[in-house]
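Throughout this chapter, every protein is written as a compact record of paired, labelled lines. An example of such a record is reproduced below:
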Amino acid sequence: MDDANDHLREESLESTQVFRGTLLDVRCDRVRLPDGEERLREYVKHQGAAVVIAVLDDGHLLFVRQHRYPLHRSFIELPAGKIDPGEEILDTAARELREETGHQAAEWRHLGTMHPCVGYSDERIEIFLARALHRESAPHPDQGEFLDLLSLSLDEALAAVRSGAITDAKTVTGLFWAEKVVRTGW
């Protein structure tokens, strides 16, 4: 652990599972704060996910449009999905790219990790760049998942972020990386 942050650390005293579903595990922990007081911390445990910045030969990026029930509207997102138990993270990225877009990639690069909601979840999303794409089939999303496949140039995608047409956090973060990697070859 980082000793420089010891004065900020909270100590877990007790952890209680409040709810467990197929997607979410909600916890309520009793913690000791740095000043010695005790508080409750509610949070969601998450198995983690991968997001894929899939770059076509012409430089366009692959996106999916899908309805997200909690906000009752459709979102434009980079291909992504949850890590299955025991699955390697690169395998998750490749599986989600194949399922959601019908593509495979010959070149993969891990770019980084993001934590989309640090105030109430331990979720982490691993960010991958996929190049040298080959379309092997039509998309075949998970049962109960419905989506449209689309491609946008990097400039179109960034304009969609600025206009509010793209607001999904993992996609906005992925586009931050895409701008750096695609434009500068970093």
Q: What stands out?
A: The helical segments are 89-101, 154-163, 169-184.
